[in-house]
Amino acid sequence: MTADFRLLMIGAMYENGGNTSHRFLDGHPQMFVYPFESQPGTRYVNDMMSSLFPLKYRWPVFPLDSSPEQDYKLIIDEECKVRARTPNVSKFRNIPFDFNDDERGRLYVKYVQQTGRSRGANMSAFFRATFEAWKDYKRSGRESVYVGYSPIITVDADKILNDLPQAHVLHIVRNPWSAFADTLKRPVPMSLEHYLLGWTLNQYYALLFKERYPGRLHIVRTEDVMQDPRAALGKVCDKLGLETPSSLSKISWNGVELQQVSPWGTIRTPTPEINRKTALELSPNQIEEIRQRACPYLESFDYKNYI
What we know:
The protein is an alpha/beta fold. It is built from 12 helices and 7 strands.
């Protein structure tokens, strides 16, 4: 069951358009697209990046002496669990979602009891159980690939690809000026230094793992998704052996077209014009500081002359 489990895991630095690409993929008739950020991490993640990135966004670590029931409770999955258990405090409270988290937990345990515990088996069970427990999910009957999204999880792409032999990782990158300008709109924004460290690390790991796992790690620019989502994401679909439907041209949730990406992400209207305008909200000093800190990757992703 784990060996044939097909997962497309999306990763992106904050405000880089991961949520946007996730919503463009939502209506694909051959994909089970996770409803929110997947956030599969556990509190047992502990490495050199644990102080830089929230544990909920990381690929999980499970203790050896745990049980399937305990493993399930360890998976943070904050956005989905909050919406299911305390909907009135969820930013998705107005979105119809017929889903019971306890039922998903029981289904998860059933799957793991069939496969045995391992990180790959646990994640396979997590995604399978989600869509079995989601009662008002609009199915085509042709779904074969599960799609998850967790910010910054590209840094763990090697673990994902090693744990799940049929998995692919899609890394989304956005020019750092527009991305940081949107970060500044958060209630407690990151500093420029902190943000650019995270941005550059994500690009480093994306390029490294693309070399190490040819054909299984794909990089797409948010600018290209904004320009022509069907063409940009269709290339990834082709590599997965999937069709390129017209649904790739619109953002949606559970197949229902959205007017804006928010509250799924900070980007509200994904257009090239707004993207460039957002970059120009920064001061000249900020623009130059970002240029210096992101310098090695601006040429790699054709951003050298973006602004």
